[in-house]
């Protein structure tokens, strides 16, 4: 999940979250950040394969903002997600940190 300057959250998948976050910061990539720039990677999960990642992305996008914020607030806890297909690897940072992607429009 990436937090935008306006507080909205963006969710997506990538094989290289740091590279993808840096693209968002530079204004390249998702049009989501045209309205408000990316400021922090607030949540990251590692999945075993592309299919698992897509399923997890879909599930997270279906959550309300409060549920997403609860996920973020647990950033110190590495937990198993779903049937063990994905593992939470949460992270928090500012623009100069190492970060990853969710969207709550």
Could you name the key traits of this structure?
single chain, 105 residues, alpha+beta, GIY-YIG endonuclease, three-stranded antiparallel beta sheet, 16% strand, globular, GIY-YIG_endonuc_sf, UPF0213_domain, GIY-YIG domain-containing protein, GIY-YIG_endonuc
N- and C-termini, Cα separation: 13 Å
The name of the CATH topology is GIY-YIG endonuclease
Name the assembly state.
single chain
**Beta fraction:** 15-25%
What is the topological layout?
Elements (H helix, E strand, L loop, with lengths): L1 E3 L4 E2 L6 H9 L12 E4 L3 E3 L2 H12 L3 H9 L6 E2 L4 E3 L17
Antiparallel strand pairs: 1-2, 1-3, 4-6, 5-6
Task: Please give a quick description of this structure.
By secondary structure, the protein is α+β, with helices and mostly antiparallel strands. 29% of the residues lie in helices and 16% in strands.
């Amino acid at each position: 999940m990436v937090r935008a300057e306006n507080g909205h959250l963006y969710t997506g998948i990538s094989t290289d979250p740091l590279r993808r976050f840096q693209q968002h910061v530079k204004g390249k990539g998702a049009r989501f950040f045209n309205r408000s720039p990316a400021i922090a990677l607030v949540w990251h999960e590692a999945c075993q394969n592309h299919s698992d990642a897509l399923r997890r992305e879909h599930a997270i996008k279906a959550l309300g903002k409060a549920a997403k914020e609860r996920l973020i607030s647990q950033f110190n806890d590495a937990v198993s997600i779903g049937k063990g297909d994905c593992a939470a690897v949460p992270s928090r940072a500012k623009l100069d940190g190492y970060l990853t992607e969710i969207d709550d429009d």
